[in-house]
Amino acid sequence: MAGTQEDEAGRTVKTARTTFRVLDEVTARERAGVTELASALELSKSAVHRHLATLVAEGLVEKHDGAYRRSLRETEGANVAFAVVEALKELDRATPAQIASTVGRSEATVSHYLSWLEEKGYITKQGDVYKNGLKFLDIGERVKYETGIFDIAAEQVDELASESGELALLSVLEHGQNVLLYKSSGADAIHTAHEIGLREPLHCSGLGKAILSELPRDRVERIVDEHGLPAFTEHTITDRATLFEDLDRTQERGYAIDDQEAKPGIRCIAAPVVMGDRELYGAVSVTAPQSRMKGDRFEQSLPELVTGAANVIEVNSIYL
Fold first, then answer.
1. Could you report the per-residue pLDDT of 172-191, keeping only the tens digit for each?
2. Alpha-carbon span 35 to 49, nearest angstrom
3. β-strand 280-289 against 199-200: which pairing, if any?
4. Are 15 and 41 spatial neighbours (Cβ–Cβ below 8 Å)?
5. pTM (2 decimals)?
6. Which fold does the domain 140-318 belong to in CATH?
7. Does an H or E element contain 44, and which?
């Protein structure tokens, strides 16, 4: 009897080891078929089928289009953690109950992630209220300076604001969106909701259209497929043909125009910044009320200032 039990235990351990071998092999590949796995592991196809069935039942492997791959279930924890961070970004500060209501999770689950994020230094706690911590500032600052030529670009944006007297902006492209990287206010600059890190669609702003004008058409198509062309004002471009016509004009003249397309009553002149190896860096712009951006100032003097600033950044980038 004892021998039988020992034999059974041995077979169980052997089966478990083989199952984990199959899991390791699936993990090492983006996707794999039964024949491929059987060959790599020197097992029969029927044996591989059995072990895969166990892994699928446990949620560790998933079957897709006849092939197997590692399940994404393990990313669920990261999804919850980022949902909590995003909720705190919108709420500014909140209790576990408020965050739980926002992210659609139980208060107990949210409290667990809040404790973990606090321990890691990403959020802070005051009483029973949580808020995002300054560790994100450290990360953001490092990322900002790692864009390559931020110092040079920021200096030119400051000069652009000073010379124009208006609001000057610097943005870059990330995940198909326009991301504000830096801003500087001249003496007469308007006050807007342009916060550093703000993400906006590319099609509705001068900065965004300046960036799009330097991208291959197929990439612009993919961006439009993903983000669409939503209207923000009655002047926003909302169809592809018109957008590509606008981008062609932008390329020809060297700068983009936002004529009340993002905000009513606001105009913007923006120029792309392309580094020496023809790599797109981003765009710079001047934004002002329509009443101050018209005539020769709108058609010549401000475009010259903006394209001049972009050119200085481009030239200096060659020597970095």
1. 999 899 999 999 999 999 88
2. 10
3. unpaired
4. no
5. 0.69
6. Beta-Lactamase (3.30.450)
7. none
